[in-house]
Write a structure and sequence with these properties.
Helix content is about 55%, strand content about 10%. It has 18 helices and 8 strands. The chain has helices spanning about 5-10, 20-30, 30-35, 50-55, 60-70, 90-115, 140-155, 175-195, 210-220, 240-245, 255-265, 275-285, 290-295, 295-310, 320-325, 335-355, 355-370, 375-385; strands spanning about 15, 40, 125-130, 160-165, 200-205, 225, 250, 270. Helix 10 (about 240-245) links the parallel strand 6 and strand 7 (about 250).
């Protein structure tokens, strides 16, 4: 029984939840239905509530915004655009950076209490918080961390110190997710205990990730990792929450990342990787992960470290299945194909972060251009396109 077909036939409207996902529904999943009813599938991008994810979670930034554009913006998030002239004001940028630092100090305290790891609030806080799933590619993030570790140990330290923060939950029976979480923990222990690297690189997995933790993590993020394989993320909202709080996005052109890119501009976002049509074309042609493994010495070295027990010396074979899932299992979400482009994007992040004023300008600009992503706008579009109702006076 084709459950999706039944759901569509029984529905008045179907929402694609982002522009990209709506196009995929029309062109790939339901092309025959579109011929019968072209207006049934509608694009209404998800949104977030600024009352929770900025006013409550980030009172310092809220007060800074209030002082410059008034207090009406939480109900009309598009009014944040009035901040645009202030991004070139040095005093505003200094105050913006002070708010971010205070939020990082607050998160550092939470990490010390929950995880027992001391992190430096002056380092870049590189954040990936979301459900643990192979398509969201926490493992790609971890490969970059291992590559960074390798370079430091080889005497080629990066110019920017980073604290990489990962958080999220997984389905109880999802074995590979559990393997990835355990690998993150093992890599973190090696890096955080190594005197050669601990001042330049920290890795933290925050346990029991939930809303109350997110309200501390999200305002403190400098970098927001949104790195799912193009075409797989319908429209998560973590990218919106992080951007609204001034984190710059490092992401693939997937889900609502595309609309964030349209809103903030290419100069204020770090994009990389295969596009959705390229993913489909590569799969159709016959994707071979071994060709990337054999053709990239850094990738090979990172995967071999995982499989050889470098991060689990007491049990050398503990993480071999992770590498095998990529090479023997076909690398369904194409981590290896995007690895080199991801490293190049991370190098651009490092270069940008060294310019503190330039980074803060990008961060403040991002906040000012997130008005489209309010849940209020989402609900208005539902009222107009789905429910056919008018608001009360």
């Amino acid at each position: 029984i084709r459950m999706a077909h039944l759901a569509l036939v029984g529905s008045h409207r179907v929402n694609g939840v982002s522009e990209l996902q709506t196009c995929l529904l029309k062109d790939v999943v339901f092309p025959g239905f579109v011929t019968l009813a072209n207006d049934q599938i509608v694009p209404i991008t998800n949104g977030i509530t600024p009352r929770q994810w900025l006013v409550m979670a980030n009172p310092g930034l809220t007060e800074l915004i209030n002082a410059h554009i008034g207090r009406d913006w939480p109900k009309h998030l598009e009014k944040l655009e009035a901040l645009t002239p202030f991004v070139d004001d040095a005093g505003f940028r200094d105050a913006f950076r002070e708010v971010k630092h205070a939020n990082k100090v607050r998160l550092a305290k939470l990490i010390r209490e929950r995880v027992g790891v001391t992190v430096d609030p002056t380092s870049m806080f590189d954040v990936q918080v979301k459900r643990i799933h192979e398509y969201k590619r926490q493992l790609l993030n971890l490969l970059h961390v291992i590559q960074r570790y390798r370079l430091i140990k080889a005497g080629r330290p990066p110019a920017v110190a980073r604290t990489v923060i990962i958080g999220g939950k997984a389905a109880p029976g999802y074995e590979m997710a559990k393997r990835i979480i355990r690998l993150i923990g093992d890599v973190a222990q090696v890096i955080n205990d190594d005197p050669d690297t601990r001042d330049l690189l920290r890795l933290v997995f925050i346990p029991d990730y939930k809303v109350s933790v997110a309200e501390v993590v999200i305002p403190a993020a400098d970098l927001s990792q949104q790195i799912s394989t193009a075409g797989t993320e319908a429209s998560g909202t973590g990218n919106m929450k992080l951007a609204l709080n001034g984190a710059l996005t490092l992401g693939t052109l997937d889900g609502a990342n595309i609309e964030i890119l349209d809103a903030v501009g290419a100069a204020n976002m770090f994009t990389f990787g295969l596009h959705t049509p390229e993913v489909a074309e590569l799969k159709a042609r016959g994707y071979n992960p071994w060709s990337y493994y054999d053709g990239d010495e850094d990738l090979k070295a990172c995967l071999d470290m995982i499989a050889s027990g470098a991060f689990s010396p007491e049990e050398p074979g503990r993480h071999a299945a992770v590498r095998d899932s990529l090479l023997g299992g076909g690398d369904h979400y194409m981590l290896l194909a995007d690895f080199r482009a991801y490293l190049d994007a991370q190098a651009r992040v490092d270069a940008a972060y060294q310019d503190a004023h330039g980074w803060t300008r990008k961060s403040a600009w991002t906040v000012a251009h997130m008005g489209h992503f309010s849940a209020d706008r989402t609900i208005r579009e539902y009222a107009e396109k789905v429910w056919d109702i008018k608001p009360l006076p």
